[in-house]
Amino acid sequence: DDIVISSRDFSLLTEEDKAFIESKHITLVESEVAEFKHHEGQINEVIFKNGERINRSGAIIGVKWDTDFEFLKALNIEREDNGKIKINELGESSVPGLFVAGESKDFMASQLIDAAANGNQVAK
């Protein structure tokens, strides 16, 4: 009953979307999170880049995920339109001998056991 959604850009929301969200008593903050404050590991405040601050006891966040690692830049690896490294069914990239597995292959966070299992498959 106390939900806050933040984003740096709500331009994709129509006025109808915003009215629906407001009808559900959800607060929109058009700013990115700058910092999470906590006490002994428990979140207690969110500070936004626009200076707004709100008290919170929990948060769900989206994480920007990429594989644009500095050490790979000189290799000129082929990538998909979204930046994901192109690989074949065996995990091999466009650079001979360079294989991609786990979270770098899936381009999103996963369970450690899933990433390890995929690494094992690629290594075979």
In the sheet with the most strands, the strands line up as 3-4-5
- Give the mean pLDDT: 88
Q: Calculate Rg over CA atoms.
A: 20 Å
**What oligomeric assembly is this protein in?**
single chain
- Give the % helix: 10-25%
User: Unreliable stretches, pLDDT < 50, 5 or more residues?
Assistant: none
Distance between the termini: 50 Å
SSE arrangement, N to C: EHEEEEHH
How many separate helices? 3
Range of strand content: 15-25%
How is the main sheet built? 3 strands, antiparallel
Shape by Cα distribution: elongated
Strand-pairing-aware structural class:
alpha+beta
The number of strands is 5
Question: What does this molecule look like?
Answer:
The chain is an alpha+beta fold. It has helices at residues 15-23, 102-106, 112-123, and strands spanning 3-6, 26-29, 33-39, 42-48, 53-55. A three-stranded antiparallel sheet has the order 3-4-5, with no helix packed on it. A two-stranded parallel sheet has the order 1-2. The longest helix is centred in the C-terminal third of the chain and has 12 residues, at 112-123. The radius of gyration is 20 Å and the shape is elongated.
